Amino acid sequence: MVIGYHAIFCAYGFWLPNDPRGSWSEFIGSWELYKFGDATKVTTTRSLAAVEHDREARLAAKRALKYPPVLFNGVQARAIARGFADYIDRTDLTVHATAIMPDHVHIVFARHRLKAESIVNQLK
Q: How many CB atoms neighbour CB 124 within 10 A?
């Protein structure tokens, strides 16, 4: 029985659709990134962050991004936290942990009357 969920929200430039460790993407929307390979769609729900890969190739792809990667500053991180807090209050969502990192966000929440996919979409 599922008792909770761990969701990760990535900022632009954090995890690319053709990351050699896999991604949830099915297409590459940028010619600059496409030259580094097709989307690396995976179906596993387990983290692949520790899988060995060509780090230099991944960093070269990041350098080819049209814009600089997004890094949340303190004001933006606080805005994310306040948005989460507002949503949590309105939906009575039980949150066990949240980590707002400079380029991505983690949230661990309990099973709820709403589907996890709906919660994640609304938090985005």
A: 9
For residue range 42-81, list pLDDT tens digits in order.
888 788 888 888 889 889 999 999 999 999 999 999 999 9
The Cα angle at residue 55 between residues 107 and 97, in degrees rounded to 5: 10
The angle subtended at Cα 45 by Cα 78 and Cα 33, nearest 5°, is: 70
Instruction: Write down the mean pLDDT value for the chain.
Output: 92
- The gap from C-alpha 58 to its chain's centroid, in whole angstroms, comes to 17
Using alpha carbons, list the distances in angstroms from residue 87 to 18, 59, 81, 83, 97: 32, 35, 10, 6, 15
Rounded CA-CA distance 43/120 in Å is 18
pLDDT of residue 88: 97
Q: Which one-letter amino acid corresponds to residue 52? A: E
Report field, pTM of the whole predicted structure over 0.90? no
Q: Which residues contact 63 (CB under 8 A, 6 or more apart)?
A: none
Dihedrals phi, psi of 68, to nearest 5 degrees: -65, 145
Copy the structure tokens of residue 55: 């780090």
